[in-house]
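Hey, resending since the last one bounced:
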Amino acid sequence: MPSRFILLACGVISFSAAAFAETLRVPQDYTLIQRAAWAAAPGDTIQIAEGTYFENVVVTKSITVKGAGIGKTILAGKDRASPVLALNGKGGAIAGSDFTIRHEPAPQLPVDPNSTEPPVEDMSEGLSIFSGDLSLKNVEVRNSSGQGVWVAAGKAVVDRVTIVAPGSTGLHVYETLPGTTISNITVQDAQGGYDLTAYQAAAVFKNLMLTGKAMGFIQIEGSKSAVTFPGIDADLKARIEWLDGASPDGVPQKTAEGGEGQDEGEYAYTYLFDAQFGYL
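The structure tokens again:
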């Protein structure tokens, strides 16, 4: 396994974490991606070889997770109530690229003989990335039990992401910061919800390929949202829904007191997110 040797001379020597960044290989150095994530230090890269890995992985530090390519490195999560891959930068830089994500098929759910309602399974996004400088490139997400990809709480660069048959919304963007760019996004056959949604987010969206199979194409919500779609074609532009104070001109709305608006339920949503996963 990789090890770090730091030689300290007399006096105080300053250095950056990047100078000592290492590459942790899966499965050569670590048989499980999660074990590599636990062992990694900020600035490290986890390089995942070609193959299928039956894991739900949580990363809670500033690192890069890189596969061998879409369809070559596959993360298959058996726990459909949790993300297959959750990337939490903890306020630092975190990146994921060159892999496929999927939830494994749902098992047969038990039927309550005293109820006429069909059984309902817990759902989760296939991939989430949040809290910091976020980068997600050349990734495919298939058959997630809930949302395909969830991007939140940071400045994000998302490019070349394909989402196929998500259980609900394809891509959800939540409270991202100015400077966020999301481009070359394909959403196919969303099973419920919209292809793309944003809540209280700042983002520029470019080159979207959407099918709008379920509820619709795009929904932007919240008076603090600052979302633009440069170069969008007229037909897709007409299918954008702007709700709860979101403005098509990309400018956040102000309250009568001069502050940015606060939608009902925002604090409850954030609290639930924090309490359930401890992410932020």
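Helices lie at 33-39, 234-237, 266-277.

Sorry for the duplicate.
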